[in-house]
Amino acid sequence: MQKSSCLLNLVQKFPPICGEPFLLQKPTSLTNTHAMASFLRRQPFRALFFVYFFTTLVFFKIPIWVFRYLPHANRPRSTWTIKRCLIIRAFQDLLVFSSKVGSVQKPSPTKEVADKELTNAKFAWVEGIDEGSELFCGVLKQYAEKTGVHHVRIPGYWLLKKGTKWVGEGKAREGERTVLHLHGGAFYMGSAHPSDMTANLTRGLLLHSSTLERTFAVDYRLAASSPHPARNPFPAAVLDGLAAYRYLIQDVGFDPANVIIAGDSAGGNLAFALVRHLIENPNPVLPPPGYLLSVSTWGDLSASRRGPNSSAVLNASSDIFPGVVGSSQFGRYGVVSILGPLEGAEIETNRYLSPASAHLVPTKGLFKGFPPTYMVAGGAERLLDNSTVLVERMEADGVEVVTDFPPDAVHDFLVFTWHEPERSEALRRISRWIDRTQK
Ligand SMILES: *[C@@H]1O[C@H](CO)[C@@H](O)[C@H](O)[C@H]1NC(C)=O
Ligand SMILES: *[C@@H]1O[C@H](CO)[C@@H](O)[C@H](O)[C@H]1NC(C)=O
Ligand SMILES: *[C@@H]1O[C@H](CO)[C@@H](O)[C@H](O)[C@H]1NC(C)=O
Ligand SMILES: CC(=O)N[C@H]1CO[C@H](CO)[C@@H](O)[C@@H]1O
């Protein structure tokens, strides 16, 4: 049971891009699934379901899968080891399971964490942007007024390179670089806390880079919608990213040119929106960052590319997501939550929400002024096309882009320490890019 409880842990913490409604095949099954889900959320059914799930997984499913994946030809990727096949297959089942027992919807954290509870990390408060400030402007302000979003104080965490001591107030050294990380989790899960699996991305960069000494992750507000109380629609999370960027530049003293804004999965979506805001609303006190690092970015919430040749279809069996192949409902719970009171059409044509959408026309000029960008995605992931479309559009606008798509890697593979050797290889390449661009 050791292994499976560890897997469960992963799933409870893992920010998959898909939520419970992702699993709905047809709208007609909606009510049934919800009734079932709320039933399984109650004790003792919940506990019984846990036992049932793990017993069948360990004693029934895993042995069958081992048998099935023995021939290389039966594996989702012939190069994958049996171990990887099993982890990914179990992951798919666990995502279905966690959606049924509803372990996912936690409120956004709002508590301070004492330094002694953290290893190689430090807590920091990020103050919300003053609503009267000129930094609160443009599309973000317009939408915040529409959706009733305000600025709040949010938690953040510094992750320190092993052996680095926190000195004084922690002001930026001359020429020091850092990464501002927006974690993944389909806009409604995950955390910036160092124990969240997405911290394995920045922890990996700190391990391999020779110039980075610390990175910063922000606990942006998580969105929610029915059956939970609706909260934190667009642009709450982007405003929190903006507040964190302002903190790094104005309070800690980093030169914007030395900041890399990074995001994985839904965090990549937020990273693109944040950089876009800084470019579209030039302000001498808060210039755009020097670099952008995109990891398996969810760049199209409208599922606009799901034809027979799309990665949504071709890579469906080789990714961590369960469920409907090429679905128009991909990650629906996260999408509905972030939309809040906004029109559904926004996910097709709003450049802040879906910069990779096929409905977004014209695309010329959409990425003008974006900083040099490093794009990572798994060649075996469903969302691969989201990244290739972003790359095409950025290159058409003259942005300097490095692409890194290891062919047999899954969605957000940089956070999975079991995804070797691809994870460390890619982390080393990204770290070289970061170190080389050091001014
Ligand atoms: C982005 O990926 C999602 C998930 O596979 C898919 O639904 C959507 O159509 C993709 N969009 C593009 C432009 O690649
Ligand atoms: C899919 O790809 C195949 C082979 O590359 C090509 O023949 C076919 O026309 C493509 N289909 C679509 C719908 O793009
Ligand atoms: C993230 O890293 C920690 C420490 O290295 C490890 O214990 C954990 O299993 C990792 N998470 C994943 C999903 O690989
Ligand atoms: C091996 C495989 O089928 N990978 C596919 C993943 O999706 C892309 C589409 O973007 C295909 O080109 C790959 O062949």
From TrEMBL:
Belongs to the 'GDXG' lipolytic enzyme family. GO terms for molecular function: hydrolase activity. Residues 179-414 form the Alpha/beta hydrolase fold-3 domain. PROSITE patterns: LIPASE_GDXG_SER (PS01174). It comes from the Eukaryota. This is Esterase. Keywords: Hydrolase, Membrane, Transmembrane, Transmembrane helix. The chain crosses the membrane at residues 47-67. The keyword Transmembrane helix applies.
